[in-house]
Design brief:
Blueprint (H helix, E strand, L loop, with lengths): L1 H13 L12 E10 L6 H4 L7 E10 L5 H5 L4 E10 L8 E15 L3 E14 L18 E16 L2 E13 L10 E13 L18 E13 L7 E14 L4 E12 L4 E2 L8 E2 L5 E13 L2 E13 L6 E10 L4 E10 L2 E12 L1
């Protein structure tokens, strides 16, 4: 929650405009209708789905004009806030879903009449009917009403008239609680959408200045994270997870860093079911340490960045998968110190949400 507030306040403070344009003139307003597709890869979700997910979204955009250097480097992105609400596709067992999340919308390709964009949003999600062992035991997908929500979208804005755009898009919306409360298979909803966008001032002036070329040096980091995690059986105690990362990243451009690192995780929730036991029995007698290496790409937006990691386990006594993925946010609040979070998953199934700090040497 804290990092989302930081993300939102950073985005809107970064959207400060020149006196000539003004904040109100930088705004746009949009609404879209999403038509989702059933996720056949999630057998437990497929079993309770009765229709296609259909939901609406309201968006408030603020167009950056280059007042800050990172805005020019990133092609003058829009930042804003999305509100989402509608049918999950499993109304009897999941009910409706909702979300509120800040986002950044990047322009990838632009002509006079069409603008191709990519959107990244991260915030809070809500599920009306979470798992309940007595009244909703068929729902083995989501165990909590409050969840993290991640949305990635590719859109095309087509000019109708000077202030109005038709917006078509393909997106994936993910909701999960990071295994804080089981079950947590998570919702992954691919969808197509159609909407309209109203631009208050389509004639904004953009600041252009000389950008200093990035120094392509190698940087060294250490991060420490904490996470809370529940393991099966459902309603087990919540356990603490400790994560220690050593990372090396090289500045490749003003917008990106490449590199990798070593990840050491002590996960107190790890255990495995004892096969052929007369009753449901779990064993946690082995060392609950995970050691892995990962490749990383970090997209940079000034003090804020989006790390994307793909990891491979070298040591794991309780394997679920040989690989994992992490996507998150980092905010540099001083020369050497960073705050960050990451959503770790195995092929889209959330493992945990980690929160912590890092130090740049």
């Amino acid at each position: 929650m804290l990092i989302c507030i930081i993300f939102l306040s950073y985005c809107f403070s970064a959207a400060g405009q020149t006196k000539e344009s003004g904040f109100i003139n930088s705004l746009s307003f949009g609404s879209s209708l999403y038509y989702g597709f059933n996720n056949s890869s999630n057998v437990k979700l497929e079993a309770i789905e009765t229709s296609r997910p259909v939901f609406g979204e309201l968006d408030i955009y603020s167009q950056t004009t280059g007042k800050k250097e990172w805005q020019q480097i990133n092609g003058y992105p829009e930042i804003g806030l999305s509100i989402l609400y509608g049918n999950s596709g499993a109304s009897e067992y999941l009910g409706n879903i909702g979300a509120v999340f800040p986002f950044v919308n990047f322009s990838l390709y632009k002509t006079k009449f069409v603008n191709i964009k990519s959107k990244f949003g991260l915030g809070l999600g809500w599920v009306q009917k979470p798992f309940n062992p007595l009244s909703n035991y068929e729902n083995l997908v989501i165990g909590s009403q409050l969840n993290a929500c991640l949305q990635i979208q590719f859109s095309a804005e087509m000019k109708i008239q000077n202030h109005l755009r038709l917006v078509t898009a393909f997106s994936i919306t993910h909701m999960s609680n990071g295994s804080i409360q089981l079950p947590n298979l998570g919702l992954n909803i691919p969808a197509i959408s159609l909407g309209l966008k109203y631009i208050v001032n389509p004639q904004l002036s953009f600041i252009k200045s000389d950008i200093k070329e990035v120094e392509k040096k190698v940087n060294y980091y250490v991060f420490t994270y904490l996470a809370l995690k529940q393991q099966y059986p459902v309603e087990s105690p919540i356990s603490l997870v400790n994560v220690l990362c050593f990372e090396i990243l090289k500045n490749n451009s003003n917008t990106g860093r490449f590199g990798g690192g070593v990840n050491l995780t002590f996960d107190r929730a790890l255990k495995e079911e004892v096969v052929n036991a007369p009753t449901l029995t779990y064993d946690n007698s082995k060392l609950r340490l995970e050691a892995s290496v990962y490749g990383s790409y970090e997209y940079i937006m000034g003090k804020l960045s989006i790390p994307i990691q793909l990891g491979f386990y070298l040591y794991n006594n309780y394997p679920v998968s040989e690989t994992y993925e992490i996507i998150g946010l980092r905010y540099r609040f001083s020369t050497h110190w960073l705050a960050g979070l990451g959503l770790k998953s195995h092929f889209g199934n959330g493992d945990f949400i980690q929160w912590g700090i890092g130090y740049k040497f």
